[in-house]
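quick q for whoever's on today - can somebody do inverse folding on this one?? i tried earlier but teh output was garbage lol. tokens:
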């Protein structure tokens, strides 16, 4: 079972031999491909063979490429993630609007509950009670925008009343970096299950190739928020980036068992697709995290 997140942060050549990823620098480091769940190429001074890229795609290893500022810039996506991908695509196109709205409401309620738990962790009990009330008022597809109201209360409680998600602060850089790591993990699971990332249940921006991943990842964002809150970064350095990458290796409870976040995402995504295909929101499986 794949479990490792491998980060390549310096000049090297990556190739493949006998089922191993080979990292060639002054020395050679070898890691078996079966152990790798995510490969993050932080440096632009890295060369990779086409054979390695094809094999990583075949094994559904998520590969994330960073730009010269070490921010996520692109990812490797397989053309075919499942043997029945064509059937899954037809089904995805035909998901009824009412069913998608029910799912979106459930996702937003759970996201706000996770935010509420995070506020309790940050000793913001009054704000947490407000979010409990907001979660209870989410109806249908959240037509009253409880998500937006909750966000204002939530981020103000974590990072100060003057905080805004629109500036270029180190806090926002760290949040965006961590969210990009999560987004990549969700893209992987969506494609692996035979669906496409472009067609969302709520997000429908024609310029966004990852609408569905943006939908499904919402309850998992507070996991990144927790790391950023604990780190309180003043700048985006290597220590902060490695701390955020580690979000996939955290453990949460899902289906009454402790799982790595990367495995919890797999379980959750499968439950979402069952809920949509079977028109049964009771199929949804969310994680819990004892903060």
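ok took a stab at it. sequence:
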């Amino acid at each position: 079972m794949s479990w490792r997140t491998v980060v390549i942060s310096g000049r090297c050549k990556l190739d493949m031999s006998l089922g191993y990823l080979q990292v060639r620098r002054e020395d050679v480091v070898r890691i078996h491909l079966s152990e790798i769940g995510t490969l993050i190429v932080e440096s632009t001074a890295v060369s990779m063979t086409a054979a390695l890229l094809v094999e990583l795609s075949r094994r559904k290893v998520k590969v994330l490429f960073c730009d010269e500022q070490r921010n996520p810039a692109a990812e490797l996506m397989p053309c075919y993630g499942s043997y029945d991908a064509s059937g899954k695509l037809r089904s995805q196109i035909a998901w009824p609007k009412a069913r998608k709205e029910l799912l979106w409401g459930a996702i937003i309620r759970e996201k706000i509950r996770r935010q509420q738990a995070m506020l309790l962790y940050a000793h913001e009990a009054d704000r947490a009670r407000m979010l409990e009330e907001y979660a209870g008022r989410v109806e249908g597809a959240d037509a009253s925008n409880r998500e937006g109201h909750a966000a204002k209360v939530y981020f103000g409680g974590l990072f100060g009343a003057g905080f805004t998600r629109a500036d270029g602060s180190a806090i926002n850089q760290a949040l965006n970096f961590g969210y990009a790591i999560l987004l990549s993990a969700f893209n992987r699971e969506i494609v692996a299950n035979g669906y496409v990332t472009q067609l969302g249940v709520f997000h429908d921006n024609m310029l966004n190739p990852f609408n569905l991943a943006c939908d499904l990842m919402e309850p998992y964002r507070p996991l990144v928020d927790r790391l950023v809150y604990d780190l309180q970064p003043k700048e985006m350095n290597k220590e902060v980036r490695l701390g955020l990458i580690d979000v996939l290796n955290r453990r949460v409870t899902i289906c009454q068992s402790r799982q790595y976040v990367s495995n919890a995402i797999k379980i959750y995504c499968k439950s979402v697709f069952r809920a949509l295909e079977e028109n049964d929101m009771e199929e949804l499986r969310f994680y819990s995290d004892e903060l």
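fwiw The first strand starts at residue 4 and ends at 8. also The chain is about 45% helix and 15% strand. so keep that in mind when u check it
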